[in-house]
Amino acid sequence: MDVLIQQLFNGLTLGSVYSLVALGLTLVYGILHIPNFAHGALYMVGGYITLTMMTQAGLNYWIAIVVSCVVVGGLAVLMERLVFHPLRHAPAIHDKIAAIGIMLFLEALVQFVWGADYQTMTSPYGQVVNFAGVTLTMQRLLIIVATVVVMALLYFFLKKTFTGATIIAMSQNREGANLVGINTNRVAMLTFLISGALAAIAVSLAAPINLVFPGMGHLVLTKAFVIIILGGMGSIPGAIMGGYILGFTESLGATYISNDYKDLIAFVLLVLILTIKPNGLFPAKGGH
Amino acid sequence: MKKQKFRFLSFLLIAFMFLLAACSGGGSESTSGGDSGESDSGGGEGTVNIGYTGPLSGPAALYGERTLNGVKMAAEEINEEGGIDIDGKKYKVNIVSLDDKYLPNEAGSNAKRLIQENDTPIIFTPHSGGIFALQVFNQVDNFLIGAYSSEPKITEAGNTLTVRIPPRYDGYLAPFTKYQMERFGKKIAFLPTASQYGKDWAEALEPYWEEQGGEIVYNSSIDFTKDTDFFTIITNALKENPDVLFVGGASEPTAKVVKQARELGFEGGFIIMDQAKLDEMKRVTGSYEMLEGSIGVMPLVDSDEAAVPDYVKKYNEKYGEDPGSEAGLNYIGMWAFAKAMEAANSVDDPAKIRDHMQDGLDNIPDYARVYEIPSIGDDGGFESTLIVGAIEDGKVVPIPAE
């Protein structure tokens, strides 16, 4: 019983990180109509920025996260302006190639600036909490709570504010949005900004339980791809649900079926869900 | 007219591009001039190129850099002493390094390139996959492999031009098992890295542990390239109440596994695969307290060889960190090759150099003897004394291996 609760908790932690990364990816999908392969690289850069802010500038963990959000958000906007915006009329394959190019560039750049070694981010929340036979650490609790808060804020922003509505409008139909007077350039930049900030938040929360290194983006990016396919490309609730489903499948599958096959279990689940619902759990409404 | 101008410009551009390509030399780097084996004659000076292929980018880049640093540092010291002396003619050592991204096929093509372009009599490579790839053709193409891998199979294949630098990992099985069984108990859970190397290690440890009357209560592996969090798998392993955990892989993620196991309440010991180094793990966990009861390879900085303190100081000045065995063993390996060349009186006959490796080991200057390597076996492996260390009361204590 204890093991079940412990594993549910582990799955929740894992699912939270996956969801945050997938959310950024799914938002940008609404603009680019392709998965942004460079999203994992943004995640990684965010890790290094937060780490550097904490170790070099001596900033508080939370302030470091804010700085990281701004920097990575800015980087994402820059990416949109310099690369994806000029390519908006080009075939989708150009976007894909460009995204992979950015990913390789950022990875090489980070390795050049910070080196290839593993670095440790020490968060101020390393305490271990034992509660009813379940081991929690403060950092893990923080991941779970912060993810819910971020999701709630994002949902409120997209559904209840005018600016948020323009993002959804644009993901449904770019020309239509333009016709009703939405400044599509501004919205595209805003979407990239949010997506970058989400990546920075995700990595800043997750990095203390793992390590910071140039290849870290790949850990979450492949998972995030599975999630947005599972949840429905471009769908916000889909990304959230998909993230938690994958997190729980991994932890429970590893416990009750086999650890060696836990990735297999996740993919079998993907096949099953897509067989029943070919557009994912929550197909996004709109033109794509 | 305009068209002609355009043509001329594009021609210039292409010519310029070729020029650039020629200058960059295709990514190889040289520490000193001269590009061919020993063609420059007269004046009593020459250059011998030594090849290196290893991971210099990607997830294993740090590992590759450290091994290369060891080779380079030895080469620089050899050159400072005037070079390799062959009948009064001095040969400078020039290290030519290529990136193989940790891939055997890339290592193979790099080696071909090194022989054809640089005439390298010796090629260092720090991973078993690359070594196996090179062994396919090294006796035909005639070059020595400076093999940095503790995999026993690389010297069991009967390749006469392979020199294995580190000790075989199966030598660690007995001391590790004995220590942990006596200190903690007979139940073990396996959580090594999911690489080929980790699996080979696990397969060697498994029968040995059972032979000694132990029990394996959990057997799985962790993929450090795919898993973000290790809590899940560690929870499952600890469910079986093991006394000892077998962990390993690159030092830093291995240290995270140890840390998370402690967070989940594990109080037993750790058998640490030789790829991970106790001193590097300490940088992640903060102190040896968390690693209490671990047994692994003795960190080079804690070794009591006379040459170590000076070497650590020099390495620190150059590369800004403490050297581990990756740098240390490749360093002494390069020295042994250089001295073997002198003994063989040849810089370009790999078989002759291999025959004189024993003399090479004997002639390493005292200040470079960071490891005690008395002899080389008939199979081509250095027979060094195993140095095993365990953490007791927050300190690294040497454990007799035999």
UniProtKB/TrEMBL annotation, chain A:
<keyword id="KW-0813">Transport</keyword>
<dbReference type="InterPro" id="IPR052157">
    <property type="entry name" value="BCAA_transport_permease"/>
</dbReference>
<feature type="transmembrane region" description="Helical">
    <location>
        <begin position="96"/>
        <end position="116"/>
    </location>
</feature>
<dbReference type="GO" id="GO:0005886">
    <property type="term" value="C:plasma membrane"/>
</dbReference>
<feature type="transmembrane region" description="Helical">
    <location>
        <begin position="61"/>
        <end position="84"/>
    </location>
</feature>
<dbReference type="GO" id="GO:0022857">
    <property type="term" value="F:transmembrane transporter activity"/>
</dbReference>
<protein>
    <submittedName>
        <fullName>Amino acid/amide ABC transporter membrane protein 1, HAAT family</fullName>
    </submittedName>
</protein>
<feature type="transmembrane region" description="Helical">
    <location>
        <begin position="225"/>
        <end position="249"/>
    </location>
</feature>
<feature type="transmembrane region" description="Helical">
    <location>
        <begin position="187"/>
        <end position="213"/>
    </location>
</feature>
<feature type="transmembrane region" description="Helical">
    <location>
        <begin position="12"/>
        <end position="32"/>
    </location>
</feature>
<keyword id="KW-1133">Transmembrane helix</keyword>
<dbReference type="InterPro" id="IPR001851">
    <property type="entry name" value="ABC_transp_permease"/>
</dbReference>
<keyword id="KW-1003">Cell membrane</keyword>
<comment type="similarity">
    <text>Belongs to the binding-protein-dependent transport system permease family. LivHM subfamily.</text>
</comment>
<dbReference type="GO" id="GO:0006865">
    <property type="term" value="P:amino acid transport"/>
</dbReference>
<keyword id="KW-0472">Membrane</keyword>
<keyword id="KW-0812">Transmembrane</keyword>
<keyword id="KW-0029">Amino-acid transport</keyword>
<feature type="transmembrane region" description="Helical">
    <location>
        <begin position="261"/>
        <end position="282"/>
    </location>
</feature>
<dbReference type="Pfam" id="PF02653">
    <property type="entry name" value="BPD_transp_2"/>
</dbReference>
<feature type="transmembrane region" description="Helical">
    <location>
        <begin position="136"/>
        <end position="158"/>
    </location>
</feature>
TrEMBL record, chain B:
<comment type="similarity">
    <text>Belongs to the leucine-binding protein family.</text>
</comment>
<dbReference type="Pfam" id="PF13458">
    <property type="entry name" value="Peripla_BP_6"/>
</dbReference>
<dbReference type="GO" id="GO:0006865">
    <property type="term" value="P:amino acid transport"/>
</dbReference>
<dbReference type="InterPro" id="IPR028082">
    <property type="entry name" value="Peripla_BP_I"/>
</dbReference>
<dbReference type="InterPro" id="IPR051010">
    <property type="entry name" value="BCAA_transport"/>
</dbReference>
<dbReference type="InterPro" id="IPR000709">
    <property type="entry name" value="Leu_Ile_Val-bd"/>
</dbReference>
<dbReference type="InterPro" id="IPR028081">
    <property type="entry name" value="Leu-bd"/>
</dbReference>
<protein>
    <submittedName>
        <fullName>Amino acid/amide ABC transporter substrate-binding protein, HAAT family</fullName>
    </submittedName>
</protein>
<keyword id="KW-0029">Amino-acid transport</keyword>
<feature type="signal peptide">
    <location>
        <begin position="1"/>
        <end position="21"/>
    </location>
</feature>
<keyword id="KW-0732">Signal</keyword>
<feature type="region of interest" description="Disordered">
    <location>
        <begin position="29"/>
        <end position="49"/>
    </location>
</feature>
<feature type="compositionally biased region" description="Gly residues">
    <location>
        <begin position="29"/>
        <end position="46"/>
    </location>
</feature>
<keyword id="KW-0813">Transport</keyword>
<feature type="domain" description="Leucine-binding protein">
    <location>
        <begin position="47"/>
        <end position="359"/>
    </location>
</feature>
